[in-house]
Amino acid sequence: MASNASTEAFPKALNRAERKVCWKARDDLFACLDTQQKPTDDLHHVPAGCAQVYKVYESQCPPAWTDYFIKRRALEIKKAKQLEMMKRLPGNES
C-alpha cells in the first residue's frame, strides 16, 4: 500500500487545541472566499487571493476534515441559493 504524505501528517485524532486550530484555519479560508467577487465552493480553483490561506487550512486539518468542510460549505451555499429563489416566487414574498 502506498504511503500518503497528508495522511502521515495526521496519524491520530486531533486533541481539543488542534481542533481549534483547524476550525480557525477553516473559518479564515471561508472568510477569505466570501470576500472574493464570486464566493466559491470549488476549491479545485482557489482564488489567488486565498491561496496562502488555503495552504494553511490544508496543513492544519486532516484531509477527511477538509473534504467534509468543503462539501458542507457547498451544500450551505446551494441551500441559500435555493431559499433565495423560493422567496422570489409569487406568493412567497415576506
UniProtKB/TrEMBL annotation:
Species whose genome carries this gene: Dimargaris verticillata
This protein's name: Cytochrome c oxidase, subunit VIb
Keywords of this entry: Disulfide bond, Mitochondrion
Coiled-coil intervals: none
Family of this protein: Belongs to the cytochrome c oxidase subunit 6B family.
A GO CC term attached to the entry: mitochondrion
UniProt subcellular location: Mitochondrion
UniProt xrefs under InterPro entries: COA6_fun, COX6B-like, CX6/COA6-like_sf
Pfam families: COX6B
Matches recorded under Gene3D superfamilies: Cytochrome c oxidase, subunit VIb
Domain of life the protein comes from: Eukaryota
Main localization of the protein described in the UniProt heading: mitochondrion
